[in-house]
Amino acid sequence: MTLPAEDEEAFSGEDFGRHRLPRGLTLRALVPNAITSAALCCGLTGIRFAIGGDFRGAVLAVILAGMLDGIDGRVARLMKAQSRFGAELDSLSDAISFGVAPALILYLWSLQQMPRLGWFAALALAVCCALRLARFNARIDMEEQPHKSAGFLTGVPAPAGAGLSFLPLYLWVASGRDEFRQPIFVAIWAALMAFMMISNMATPGWSSFRPRKTIRLELIALTGLVFAALLTEPWLTLVGICALYLALIPVGVVRYARLKRQRAVSLS
């Protein structure tokens, strides 16, 4: 194949070095990106556990991926190592760890008993997670983001959506009752979580919580007790965390609607 003249010049040895690409990531950027890679490996290892029938290990691997995902961005900001590469790697890791991995784990655990509808429910979870992340990337450089400016998120974030999608599995492990493993129930729940990830509703973000100074010590103590509960009764504690998060969603919608009305009044 013959290249046009300008393309031949671009690929020639003399001109190729004029616009050099960066030789690699800086040492500071390696740390947060290594954490992101560890989160990705945890998500993929969760799939491996599920294939082997160890569904408890599979869920714990995805939860560990969520914990690592929660700190990589903060580490990048603290080290002033934010980069476009890190943002893209984070999105790809999230799509696999919180979209593909939960979908396959739920399918292997329950949904394969209803192959057609179960597979569509698993696909919905994975695809909607990818769509959510694509929407986030498309808006990342936009100055006007009403939900974000008010301290809220748009839809359920990917790690939280993955954790919520496992609620039937938490209940199954905690109670030992096979009713929670019924594929029709799991399929409906997975589809609902998929919809919540791509919805436009305002959900609470960390910056939307501003506890009063008088109860901050109590919150510190409560956080310690929650971690202790995770060590002693992990599955029931995860059920409680999911119930609390679900209860906070309508609270977040009401609070954002109130803030939106206040902004409209102040601008009028």
Automatic annotation (TrEMBL):
Lipid bilayer topology: Multi-pass membrane protein
Q: Name one GO molecular function term.
A: CDP-diacylglycerol-serine O-phosphatidyltransferase activity
Tell me yes or no: is Mitochondrion among this UniProt entry's keywords.
no
Location within or outside the cell: Membrane
**Cross-referenced InterPro entries:** CDP-alcohol_PTase-I, CDP-OH_P_trans, CDP-OH_P_trans_C, CDP-OH_PTrfase_TM_dom, CDP_ALCOHOL_P_TRANSF_CS
Q: Where are the bilayer-spanning segments? A: 30-49, 55-71, 92-111, 117-138, 150-172, 184-203, 238-257
E.C. number(s) listed in UniProt: 2.7.8.8
**Keywords annotated in UniProt:** Lipid biosynthesis, Lipid metabolism, Membrane, Phospholipid biosynthesis, Phospholipid metabolism, Transferase, Transmembrane, Transmembrane helix
- Indicate what this protein is called per its UniProt record: CDP-diacylglycerol--serine O-phosphatidyltransferase
Keyword tRNA processing recorded: no
Residues covered by the CDP-alcohol phosphatidyltransferase C-terminal domain: 216-250
Superkingdom of the organism of origin: Bacteria
Which class of enzymes does this protein belong to?
Answer: transferase
Q: Which family does it belong to?
A: Belongs to the CDP-alcohol phosphatidyltransferase class-I family.
The protein's predominant localisation is membrane
Gene3D superfamilies found in the cross-reference section: 1.20.120.1760
